[in-house]
């Protein structure tokens, strides 16, 4: 009864939806693996290994959604989701950035959702593998079309955001280095100006001693006409 009902049960349909989601998660993992590999080679290999597993699991579960395959997919994707959550809260448990929480990005959220769909689809199919339910061909086509649409959208958004985030990271580092270099240059230039000889600067004018004689009584300078120049004209009478 179970063998005759494989093509008509919601078990197979749910398993195939899980397979579609697994393919989408694998594509994103393949896309971000080189970026992580440039930062730390074991990290890139880890992402590539997850992607290979998810891709192989999707093909196997599409053809034979048996309990062992379903259970393997549930455990592997649950572990991957748990690792992602832990890395965003307390940081990765190993590697050069161990203990440093990572930023939540769009690519990570897309992979997280796809892996949750894998767990839900496989979990739905596992206890219902012997349930025979009539599902029309049109119904199966619509469900699979919707699953593929969701997967394609998640993959597109995830890969695009991961590429933009990687470019921004590199450009941001270059801009920061240039800004730091400019700040050091400005500080050095300012120090040179402060230590310069004031007599050598054209903007600094040394005070010139006054050669005009002054009056002994008022202390004001006296002109050739014998007038004290305090800013006002005075008449001098003999």
TrEMBL record:
Comp. bias intervals (Low complexity): 197-213
Source organism, top-level taxon: Bacteria
Keyword Transmembrane helix: yes
Annotated keywords: Membrane, Transmembrane, Transmembrane helix
Region (Disordered): 161-238
This protein's record includes keyword Transmembrane helix: yes
Record-annotated membrane-spanning stretches: 13-33, 40-60, 66-86, 107-126, 138-160
Name of protein: Uncharacterized protein
